[in-house]
Amino acid sequence: MISVAPFLQPLECCQSSKFWNGTFNVLGNMKYLVNFMIGNNPLQPGVLPKGLGNLKQLQKLSLYNCNLVGEIPDFFGRLTQLEWLDMRYNHLRGNIPTSLMQLSTLGELLLDQNNLSGRIPANIHQLRSLTILGLSDNDLSGRIPSELQWDSLTYFSLSNNNLSGHIPEVLDKQAYKDNLLPNPRLCGGRILTLPPCSTPYKLSPERLATILVVPLFIVAVALSSICLCRSSRRKPTDTPSWKMTPFISTEVNGSYILRNLKESNVIGSGGSGNVYKVILQNGQAVAVKKIRNRGKLAGNLMRNGEHEENKIGEVEVDILGLIRHTNILKLLCYISSEEFDFKLLVYQFMPNGSLFDCMHGDPEPQMALQWPMRYQIALGAARGLSYMHHNCSPPVLHRDVKSSNILLDEDFRAKMADFGVSRVFDRLGDEHTVSGYVGSHGYIAPEYGHILKVSEKSDVYSFGVVLLELVSGMKATNEEYGEGVGLVEWIRNSITMGGGEAAVLDRRIEEESCIEQMLRVLRVGLYCTNWDPKRRPSMRTVVEMLE
Description:
The chain is of the alpha/beta class.
């Protein structure tokens, strides 16, 4: 399949090698090619043409099982828009080129079942958007980079290689056994019961002297520090004692942040408190939510709707401290002090605000988002919710999905945010009765609003409303819909009363080539907002339909 324009259905093509070889002769001229999907088509010869490096707009490249030989070309580093690269089941050899580490947009890198050798690049953590990494069934050697487990990565596979050395502590988990083993030369895993890494060796006189002297030096320094600490305790101080729980490495100072929680820095407010923009001493911008204390941080996740009393902040720390996904807002750290009656949650800063601001800002939106951007926002938010429902163990329900809780980074990538009323459930598929009523008018699923029954399908309904916002440009609630009528009812009424589906599309979208995809997303939104929860799709299915 070949797609020559973004957001259009790929063209179906024949699978003969003659066709593909002919296509390769002119491949470098297809400068606006977005998707190039020729997986499972043996090539003769199986060497990629240099012209492939000229496709600067390329986003998806599927070359699995194509009889590829030789080394991975360096020209892949020029494909700066590439999001998905699949070259599994080939005969590629040599090292993984460092040029691939330049692809900041790359979300999936699949190189399983080749003959790749050498080390895993130490700077692989530079692929900050990467969610899936497949390197299994190769001949890779050396150590596993300690930076491998970063925030966005949700799945990786390194099994059946020749990796050696101490397994990073963050990967020493039973859940990662199949992702890592077999690699016979790995060692040091306590949970994975790998052999110890220590090996006997003889000490030189110089090394023996070092071993004896260094502990004495450390003891001397420690005694000096104790004396200094005792001396300092006698001096009065006005600096509060902050307790900080970091989730991501960052330079955050509690006292510095407190001094910058000024009225002029407020960028948002809600029932739990204000949100401030703070520029750290290293120049990094962060968002700080200031929440009034309502009891000590319990540290236990709320399950099945129990303990519905409002513990905003505590729930958010519990949940965001566990979740790592490129489409979920990152919680950098949690700060508290016994000397103050509030706590601080420090997040990554989202320079483009919320989807609601961009769509319906007052008095005028920041910008009239065109359809390609809206589509990418819809897909990103869907992936974030799908991860919460299907990849977290136990599953997490957001319970307040709406356009103002979808934040946008500098590249307008969607981040699900505000988990203050979220809940953890033992399993999907069950409805649970809750005692507290949360959510936002216009987004609340009918079963939740009437009988306080909640399930993952309640989130699906709310997300369906967001999709209808994106295609129509209308708010979830509006006086012009009529009393007691929300966006879902207004769209259904407009379609059935003779206007047809096209009548509800946002007229600000000027590109006619986008109409067909807008109509498809409209139908997905209507599917998600079915009155019967059992007839709504799962978020995993929603992602598949949007993709």
